[in-house]
Amino acid sequence: MSSSFEKNKYWKSISDYNNSPESIKAKHDEFLEGVVDNFDSSKLSGMSRRKFLAVLSSSAALATTACSDYRDKGEIIPYNKRPEEILPGEANYYASTCTACSLACGILIKTREGRPIKIDGNPDHPVNKGKICAKGQSNILSLYDPERLKEPKFGNQTISWEEADFKVIEALNNAVKYNKQIVIFTDKIFSPTLKKLLNDFSVKYPTTKVYSYSLVNDKNKRDAWFESYGSYEIPSVKWNEAEIILSLDFDFLGNEGNFVENMRLFSEKREVVKKLDVNRLYVAEGRFSATGMMADYRLRISPNQQLEFIYAIINELSDAKVISVDTAVKNLVSKYSVEKFGSKEKINNLLKDLSQHKGKSIIQAGESLSKDVHIAVNYLNELLGNNNLYDWENLDSYYQIASAKEIEELIDDMNSEKVDVLIHLNSNPVFNLPQSFKYKEALKKVKNVITLTEAENETSYSSNITLPINHILESWGDAFNKTNVYSTLQPVINPIFNTRQKESILLSWINQKYDVNDFRLYLINNFNELIYNKLKPLTDQKTFWQTTLHDGVVKFEGDSTPKKFNTSSLSKLNNTNNKESFTLHLTESYYIGDGKFANNGWLQETPHPVTKVTWDNYAAISPKLAKKLNVEINDLVEITHNNQKVILPVMVQPGMSDNIIHTELGYGRSIIGEVGKDVGVNVIPLISKDLSLIVENVSVKKVDGKYQLVSTQEHHSLDDTFVKDLHRVRKIIQEGTVEEYKKNPKFLHEEKHELVSITREHEYKGNKWAMAIDLNKCTSCSACITSCNVENNIPVVGKDQVAVGREMQWMRIDRYYSGTPEEPIVSNQPMLCQHCDNAPCENVCPVNATNHSEDGLNQMVYNRCVGTRYCSNNCPYKVRRYNFFNFRDHFEDSYYENNLTAMVHNPEVTVRSRGVMEKCTFCVQRIMEARSNAIRDGKPLNGNDIKTACQVACPTNAISFGDANDINSEVAKLRKHDLSYHVLEELNVKPNVTYIAKLRNTHSEGVI
Amino acid sequence: MSAVDYSHEISVVEGKPALRELDDLIIKPLETKPNKNFLIALSITLGMLGFFVIGLGLTFYYGIGMWGNNNPVGWAFDIVNFVFWVGIGHAGTLISAILFLFRQKWRTGIARFAEGMTIFAVMTAALFPLIHIGRFWLPLYLMPYPNQHSLWVNFTSPLLWDVFAVSTYFTVSLIFWYVGLIPDFAILREKTENKIKKTIYSIFSLGWRFSNRHWQHYEMVYLILAGFATPLVLSVHTIVSFDFAVSILPGWHTTIFPPYFVAGAVFSGFAMVQNVLIIVRKIFHYEHIITLDTLEKMNKIMLLTGSLVGYAYGMEFFIAWYSGNPIEQFTFINRAFGPYAWAYWIMLTCNVVSPQLFWFKKIRRSIPIMFIVAVFVNVGMWFERFVIVVTSLANDFLPSSWAYYKPTYVDFMILIGSFGFFFTFILLFTKALPVVSMAEVKAVVDGAQPSHHDH
Questions:
Q1: Which end of chain B is more exposed for a tag (fewer CB within 10 A), N or C?
Q2: Residue of B nearest to A866 (CA)
Q3: ipTM score of the complex?
């Protein structure tokens, strides 16, 4: 071997082999000259490799994007100066007060990037404790209603606020000058500051008269309370302490009284999980109300027989020496007997229960019943010692309502041209006053009619000047929820349109000038006078105001001395008229209220709790009456009263009295946005001048024609043996009675089989999400449905699509009847995606668009879904919802896709397009938020930190959600409870929604 | 002599036509200009196809909501039509493959046409899975192709099996059909004087020179393809039935479905082939090639499969009762007496009662009656799928989610249109290709085979 070989084993060239200096240098530089060191791009061709690739890829990208239709062309503009309190992606919450009805619940408004997207109850509020109803939940859509009034109007002309103010102030001054009346016709007033403002207005313009009017009100109850106790402030009822409850047509779990509070307290006494503590509910009603569905015993008593019924009860109890009755009353009631009121057994049970539970029972009468009934009820409660269930610390604050007589006087004044200026303050009397008052005609005699309203309505069309007002989320304000609970309203968004809040407008007419801050200062002033000076807290005024505003509510000690019953009120008791007349019973719609929410699609599409009908009102009649009138569902009947005729479609409702027709108010708005136009029938014309919602002596007859009522659940005849009680046979509804449960706590699982899986099943090692729903507590109020709608961007599909079964709500409340058509028993069941462990939807999806997560969620990947609908077909619960159209723009009854309404969307939830399947996600966005917070804080993810939208909304806390693998969680305990069951257990799909079987508190052991 | 002469087979082609005559007869429709009747027929089918286009246009523009499908009833006319057309597509391969393997010579007259119908019926059927998906622009998601998202199809879904089963069936049927056509293309190439036609035929005949070697290879390939196609006849509808049988829905979740579906498919396929052939043999004067005997044999198969289907209907009820599952029992009672009872009884009358007439030889051999019976069978089989798909979905587990299904005008447009689509292809087929296999028919003409007898 030569040494040179050893010197250089590998060589590239001869020079290399010889170790020439160039080659040593070249090796040292590693790369050849000109490649790295003296790289000069100008020497290269104009197109470098890099550039070539860049141009190639960019042109490829351009070519592909230029041809693709990127659907979302919305602009995204970043903050160039971020507002201090806004962190993009993080929600801000503001406390305020709901003014959807006069209950004035405390609310917490969620805003994202300055845009309100969700309203929930304020958890710090002492009365509603974090819960609000369906109306309050859906009210957010009304904020983004594109048909809100956008500018002040003079006739049909748009004018500026300055012009409008000038015209109005001139008219007001003239009215005062010529001693003509100025009338303010307003909705219920529950804001102390508005009350003060109206006083100030009357001082400034001394000829002012204020009329507060609401067709649906509790005036009779208040008046009766005044007779009995000398006060209009009625204490709340401690429903959670009542063993026996008798409701005389009082829909206290539906929409009467402080129903949000009532539901919470009532459900505390339907407790079967932690302990067995169940009240017994008797409901005596002619219609079928939400409360009626919860009854353990239901008596069919029409509203005009209620007085007789309560007299008969007083009589029986006094005969049985349970109570000692005033002789005058005894004389009055002695001729009444309970015999005519249906089943003897039920009545005897009722009488026995009332006598055995003195001091622990409560009787309450419905708001539409006469003053007599209420006085008799007050008296009976007093005699039974039930007055200790009155919560004297919580008094419903009083707001005055004009009586029918006052309204007539007003109309006389208008007709005799004594009224010069008439201001409608957020009221709609042309629609809400019965036509017999001829209000619309009288309006023509008033020189200046000014309407302050959020959207055009029947009244604004008869006005000279129409002024647009703010939505509550754009307004300042305050309210008394109870006499000792003061809550504040604060705006969470700048007015979207050129609107002002109604209080500011009045204030600007007092001050003769407008400033956007005036009303806020006025409010703070009033707050200081009313609350600060009263409570004298240690902090300064400003801090106290800001704390109150932050909390949204302040509670203070009020006068809580129990009032004495005034026996002289008994002299006001009248004989019953004892006529067996045919009665029309009118109640307010559960969801669209008195018509105020008729333009809110989410509320129009929320199914009625009993009939499940959407987008309509109807004449509900008993099956027996239907047979007598020879009508079926969807036939038309004509109801006549006082020469007024109304034609309504028929709904055959099991369990109703045979001599009444029940109809809901609020429908048939004629001047309103596209959504609410001509939905249902206006039945207000049938109301007499006494404004009673119990219209006696109506006549009814069948008329030709058909009308299609649409509902989210098919109607089966109750006596059809083919489908009767299928929900019990199939164990969809499993129920028992308290007696049965006491005797054998495991009665539900006696016949249960061991279910064997043939495959090895997935083990859930970390979290496993699960839900439990307590059917003892669910009142079918639908707050969960609406909350889910808002949280998860559920579209409104319209009547035509509900008719073909394409409603999109992820959650529904199934209603099943058992028993007879006369005495049906109702079972309710909230139904949503069950997130089955062995989900049958998952294995049939050809594209894996629906699959299972590690933590037990049945997931839906919208992007991957091609829409074969196979998953829905294979879902035994039929909880999947399919986008048959692009429901954002396909909506026969309305608009949906517009820039404004789209603002309501929750940015955390995908807006689904056409052809995609969707369903309940267990609010996965909330789970993810909790997870990222847990990761941020370095803590394990705790299921208790996650609350689904339905769970948050549920006024009765019937829904629990959490980690089934966490043995200490509520859900894990509920899953193991003796009363827990799964729907369609035998399919072995292993659902993760557990239902707690309902226990009925009857005297027997059998359910039916 | 009353005794049958078993010494040699009865010819499946009547008379003893000269082989050249047969060629000329079969080629005639290809060589003549379309006559008035043909144009009228074509304009009718194109008109029907127009409905299809409009119906699909509406669906594509607005969405599946244009159909009557609703929440419990996720599948309706779309899948009913799919299963119906796949079923129609069954007779062809059965006739050409299974009967070929069983050496049923009577198949020769009808095989080509039946195969053609298979191709067109499967084409029609294959449209429905594509249009029934809500996002019709994403059918590629149903294909397992590598992609950067690492997204794969779900092999546990019967719908995916369908994609493979139908596409395999279509491919194999098409190849089988084409292989069978090669000798005929060669004959056409020889006969035609039109230059363009000659070029086309030359390309498609793959250089066929009628050589013995060609025939040997051809016979072997045909046999292998027949063997290959035979299991497919059974598998396609078995897999289509899995769409239902693998689900958990009462009325769908039934183990009898695979054989029951195959029998039903053959049943409806034969009915459709018989219907169309009766018209074709009349128009083209093929009475001696597609003989009454052949039709009678088809009727016998219809009688058999019809009875099998009837048996399956009965067995479904028996098993529902025998299972003791109340939901299953309800589903079947609901079919017969519930809101869709009308559809059920139409199905039963058409499918079970009407083919029983074929027990009578006179009816089996009466062309008008057999035609009507076969029409009934087609109607009945469409309703069978309707009953299975819709009634099971409309009234399933939870009574709360039940809803009645009503088709819309678009549903009917697409149904009518699918017939237009199918028959347009049939009409064009009769003018473009020999509807009877010349090579095979010539082979079964009496005297075409070597025998011990004199000619």
A1: N
A2: B135
A3: 0.92
From B161's Cα to the closest Cα of chain A, the distance in A is 9
Of B405, B430, B446, which residue is a domain's last? B405
Residue of A nearest to B145 (CA): A847
Contact B134 A814 (CB under 8 A): no
Name the band, by pLDDT with cuts 50, 70 and 90, for residue A3: very low
Q: What is the pLDDT of residues B68-108, one digit of tens each?
A: 999 899 999 999 999 999 999 888 888 888 888 888 888 88
Higher-confidence position of B59 and A725: B59
Say which of A829, A848, A917 has its CB closest to residue B152: A848
Query: Is the whole model's pTM more than 0.80, yes or no?
Result: yes
What token pair was written down for A989?
């799909």
Separation in Å, CA A790 to CA A780, A793, A909, A923: 18, 6, 10, 12
Comparing A581 with A156, the larger pLDDT belongs to A156
Six-digit token string for A878: 């039929």
Structure tokens at A689: 């001048």
Interface contact B154-A847, CB threshold 8 A: yes
Q: How many distinct helices (H) and strands (E) make up chain A?
A: 31, 42
**C-alpha to C-alpha distance for A597 and A590, rounded to whole angstroms:** 10
CA–CA gap between residue A239 and residue A262 (Å, rounded): 7
Q: Cβ separation of B249 and A723 shorter than 8 Å?
A: no
Residue B318 corresponds to which tokens in the numbers above?
């028996």
pLDDT tens profile A347-362: 999 999 999 998 999 9
Of the partner residues B70, B138, B396, the one whose CB lies closest to the CB of residue A866: B138
Q: Compute the residue count for chain A.
A: 1008
> Would the CB atoms of B72 and A867 count as touching at under 8 Å?
no
Task: Look at B157 and A713 and tell me if their CB atoms are within 8 Å.
Answer: no
Q: Which domain holds residue B240?
A: 86-133+156-246
B238 and B267: one domain? Answer: no
> Span A209-219, mean pLDDT?
90
Nearest to A848 among B68, B138, B151 (CB): B151
Classify domain A582-711 by CATH number: 2.40.40.20
Tally of domains within chain B: 2
Which amino acid does the sequence have at B396? D
- Cβ neighbours of B63 in A, within 8 Å: 883-886, 890, 914-915
Average pLDDT over residues B111-130: 90
b/e burial code for range B300-318 (CB count within 10 A of at least 16 → b) = ebbbbbbbbbbebbeebee
Looking at the structure, tell me whether residues B379 and B261 fall in a common domain.
yes
Class of domain A726-755+770-1000: alpha beta
Is A882 in Cβ contact with B63 (below 8 Å)?
no
> Mean per-residue pLDDT for A513-532?
91
DSSP designation for A348: H
From CA A374, how far away is CA A690, in angstroms rounded? 18
What's the confidence (pLDDT) of residue A2? 44
Q: How far is CA A535 from the centre of its chain?
A: 34
Select the residue of A845, A885, A916 nearest B154 (Cβ to Cβ).
A845
Nearest beta carbon to residue A868 from set B70, B133, B247: B133
What is the average pLDDT score of chain A? 87
CA atoms of B39 and A244, how far apart (whole Å): 84
Q: Best mutation site among B143, B391, B397 for testing chain A: the one with the most A CBs within 10 Å?
A: B397
Confirm if A216 and A254 have CB atoms less than 8 A apart. no
> What pLDDT band is residue B8 in, cutting at 50, 70 and 90?
low
Q: What is the pLDDT of residues A827-870, one digit of tens each?
A: 999 999 999 999 999 999 999 999 999 889 999 999 999 999 99
CA distance linking residue A639 with residue B391, whole number of Å:
39
- A834-846 pLDDT, tens digit per residue, is 999 999 999 999 9
Region label for B210, one of left (φ > 0), alpha (ψ between -120 and 50) or beta (otherwise) = left
* B365 falls within a domain: yes
